[in-house]
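Chain A, query sequence.
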Amino acid sequence: MKVIVCGAGQVGWQIARHLAVENNDVTIVDNNPSLVSQATDAFDVSGITGFASYPDVLRRAGARDADMIIAATHSDEVNMVTCQVAHSVFKIPRKVARLRAQSYLDVIYTDLYQRDHLPIDVVISPEKEVAAAALRQLAAPSTFDNEPFLQGNVEMLGIALEEDCAVVNTPLRQLSELFATLRAVVCGVRRGEHLFTANADDQLLVGDQVYVFTHKEDVRRTLEIFGKNIKKRERVIIIGGGNVGLSVARQLEKGSDRIRAKIIELSRECAENAAEHLERTIVLHGDGLDKALLEEANLDKSDALLAVTDDDKTNLLTATKAKAAGCPQVIALVNDHGLAPLMQPLNIDAFIHPRATTVSSILRHIRHGRVRQVYSIGDAEAEVLEAQVMSTSPIAGQIIRDVRLPEGAIVAAVQKGDKVLRPTGDTRIEEGDVVVIFSLARNMEEVERLLQVQIDFF
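Chain A, predicted structure.
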């Protein structure tokens, strides 16, 4: 597949990286020559320096025979015009645009992106993706990462193992024997900075971060087995009243749990805007690091603090300070993935990575075949792929034990009709089944080949 990626920033870089690893014909476009040079040196991609919305730049990038264009520059307007030029001049079949401004995303203006107006096939909103991730973290307070699969019937839970975890130093094979009715599979383990797929003989250690896939009805039991408890969140403090904080507060107001939220925002203009658009949420103007203001917001009585300003250091410091003050759950938005190792030393419960959530959302729309969902793990170190098995798939008709899965991949869940199964070696994969596979990034091409998802895309 021939793809043009516009924008060589963090998101464009990761998308180009994913596509290049899978042997797609990728050209990256950016008006910063150093960013283009870095991308072409790092990956097997072509590079064009120039403004992505210029027709001559797109022509030099190969737009005449491109299958897809992904507009992920820092400017919404450039992304929109790029898609318009790609459609009107070059007839590129598939157009994806990242848009940040909330005014462009208002549901009443969705007709704007039809072919007769601005022909964008898929609109990605980083702020909405991040807000959704934040809400998932609040709903699963004892996890550092979580994502639903199979239409919400399966949850991926990221769990940090502590000393009170009853299953540490126990081979995973024994876990299946001890909890035979538990529909849960440990797929990935991060030990230090090393992420690997788990096998039956592996033992879990204190300090490990594990990725567990469990049936939605077994979430509570799974967390209890791994030493975690679920306490309902009733009071939440949000540091940052920008697009992300405002979106989270709006969703909390709409929710049936009646969670009471307070926002602390440094910018008076932003605080006033948040107060204007919210009904039950209290908005305080001031610095989230101010001890007196945190006391005024009743931090000592809060169940969670969510730091989502546009400054990583502020988010880290605020979350750390809140945890030290006794807040049960602290979540920090962090753009720099290099800060991820600080999560445990700083005693922060979860990080939200805008780049990872945006990349996952874009990948969901650019995968081939009957792929239903893609989720990026860590700094693009692994992926979770949900796909329907087709009759042409090499995996169809085989039992899992006989499937030649790459060493870095594991089947996490299988859905047959309306029934979701915990996969075993004897589970037979048949045409029409939907499978969820956890795979290290380097093995994703082999996984896609097994699913035969690189045919009949359009």
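The chain has a mean pLDDT of 87. The first strand starts at residue 2 and ends at 6.
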